Amino acid sequence: MKFLVDMPVTPLAVTHLRAIGHDAVHAHEIGLARASDIQLLAAARREERVIVTADLDYPRLLALHQASRPGIILFRGGAYSDAEMLGLLDRVLTHTPALDFEGSIVVVNRRRIRRRALPIIE
């Protein structure tokens, strides 16, 4: 699976994802540290990557454009230590089938994991 780790997420997530066999890059290491959310979405779409973020704007942008990709893993519920975030990421990867990431928003917090299929049409 291919991931693009956004700026609000610890860079250790990249190392962690790579260690368990995934293709992961951090926005900073590919020159997108100051990119807009739209630019990051476009890069993830182009490279077929799932965005790992704590930025709450992404679901709104995907809904506004009725986009079916890229997939998003969204950390909600406050500030997390690096260890907490990596533990939650492991929980998400263990409990969500890989195919569901590409066309979904997966929201994770300390208590639960929720999945919303894309596109969001209401």
Beta-strand percentage? Answer: 15-25%
Mean pLDDT: 93
Separation of the first and last Cα atoms: 29 Å
Unreliable residue runs: none
List the strand order in the largest sheet: 2-1-3-4-5-6
What's the shape? Answer: globular
Task: Characterize the biggest β-sheet.
Answer: 6 strands, mixed
Order of helices and strands: EHEHEHEHHEE
Q: Which structural class do you get from the secondary structure elements?
A: alpha/beta
Count of individual domains: 1
Outline the fold blueprint:
Layout: E1 2-5, H1 12-19, E2 23-26, H2 37-47, E3 50-53, H3 57-64, E4 72-75, H4 82-95, H5 98-102, E5 104-108, E6 113-117
Parallel strand pairs: 1-2, 1-3, 3-4, 4-5
Antiparallel strand pairs: 5-6
